[in-house]
Amino acid sequence: MYSAIWWACTVVGLFVTTLCVRRARRQPRVFTWSIAAAFGICTLGVFFAVPAVESLATDITGVPNVAKLVAHFCAILWCASLQITMVDLAYRQDYLRTALIQRSFAALVWLCIMVPLFLATNGRDVEFTTEHVDNPRIASYLLIYLAYVLITCAELAFMCGRTAQRNWGTRPWTGWGFAMSSVAAALGVAYTISKGSYVLLYTLGHPWSLAVEQKMSPAFSGLATIFLFAGLTLPMLGGALRRWRGHEGARQEEESVSA
Q: 114-123: per-residue pLDDT in tens?
């Protein structure tokens, strides 16, 4: 079932990324290109999360778990791109440069920690999943990764919620879009809590059900992706609808003048 969700998200992601790139080329701004980058990165990460693709990537490269590293790498960059998007939308322009440096530096630091730890731990009999957190290095790697996702998703939930509130009465499509994005970020927080709590409790010797965690975490992750895709697409659809109505109104006005 989850493979079907990831495949569906990949197909939708390719379509939406194309739309975002077209919009960014027409309206070149930090947030338009950041959204396009976020969709593209997310689509790539989701693609490598498909079990069949994961196995194929390992067979082609000869590197075990390479797809998992790519997916986690994309998740970090995806969160950073979304942060940059929301900073451009939610904060003053004089703070934008500082915010970009802060978020980019944080993502770089996390990747510089995660990649060496991954390479030092990786092997044929190693899987970077909660099923193998009896390995302290795997547990550490997952907690470091989940900590970044938790922090960024919490910030995104706040910023998206605030942006939705500001646009609720004046731009309903934008308001609904960022409300759904806020829900997506909240689901991302739920994903990190689900997976991270299992790792922590296992380390403490009192884990909860692994079978439940393995069902809950992918569900939270998949739903977060779907809500985010929908949420960031709605403002574009609203803008397209407003432009269409404007063109339609102008056409009707011309026809009435001609008559």
A: 999 998 998 8
Asked whether the predicted pLDDT for residue 198 surpasses 90, the reply is yes
Fold of the 2-229 domain: Rhopdopsin 7-helix transmembrane proteins (1.20.1070)
Structure tokens at 9: 């998200």
DSSP 133: T
199 and 139 in contact (C-beta within 8 Å)? yes
Tokens of 7: 């495949």
Residue-wise pLDDT tens digits, 76-112: 988 888 888 888 877 777 777 888 888 889 999 999 9
131 DSSP 8-state letter: G
CB 240 within 8 A of CB 171: no
Q: Is 149:74 a contact under the CB 8 Å cutoff? A: no
Buried b or exposed e, range 148-170, using 16+ CB within 10 angstroms: bbbbbbebbbebbbebbeebeee
Other C-beta atoms lying within 10 Å of the C-beta of residue 39: 27
Length of the chain: 259
End-to-end CA distance of the chain: 59
Q: pTM for this structure?
A: 0.83
CB within 8 A of 48, min separation 6: which ones? 54, 57, 67, 68, 70, 71, 74
Helix, strand, coil share (%) of the chain residues, nearest 5 = 85, 0, 15
The stretch 235-259 carries a mean pLDDT of: 57
Q: Where are the domains of the chain?
A: 2-229
